[in-house]
Sequence to fold (248 residues):
Amino acid sequence: MLYGRYMMKKNIFPFLVILLLTFSHAGQAQLTEEVKKKTPELPGQIMVDFGFNLTSDTPETMPYHWWRSKSFGIYFVKPFEFSKKFELRPGIGVSLEKFGHNKNMAVASYQEDINGNVSIEFDTIPGSSLKKNQFSINYIEIPLEVRFNFNGNEKKDGLFLAVGGSAAIRFDSKTKIKYTDEYGNKMKDKQKNDFGINTIRLGASARLGYRSFSVFYKSYFTNVFSSSGPTGTSDMVYSTIGVSLTGL
Fold:
């Protein structure tokens, strides 16, 4: 009698364990499903670009330093598939551009003559210890790309190639200088203005990537400065090379 009860308990115990694990797994699956339903999904992707700006036709009075000239962009992109391997990728975001300098020069200064005419020139910074000398331009940008997925749009887990263009409008521009003056004082100077920069920027881009990672090259057709910009900058243009991550 006691042996029979013992065997019954011994047989029931594994059954109860299996039953408990089954209900636990079902409850966890239900909870996961509820979390997924309550978690909002973005109808697109977030893309982050980081690179370095390369200038051309830069005047001697604006000594360029590539390591200090960084580019950062963040965009919301909405893919549209129009064939088995091609997709259209419009987006909107911000592009933050920096141009650094490697000599003891201020980025720009305003000079006004007796007739009220204003000109923008580069000036020498007083003192000899320059810590930082950057010129920043920030844009709201609308990129548009056509992407070819070598493995097809269903998987999107392989190699891809994309080409496209962009239009941007400047919303902010400023200079930032850190230096030690001739008396040994640590100085910091920030100025906000348009500095004769063109309001609109147009460009083209190309990307080669694998899954969420890619390398890109952007070239801009619009001159950085307009005809009212600093002397010698009317033909200054730039391009950007860097890496990109796409998620969400």
Residues 1-9 have pLDDT under 50 and may be disordered.
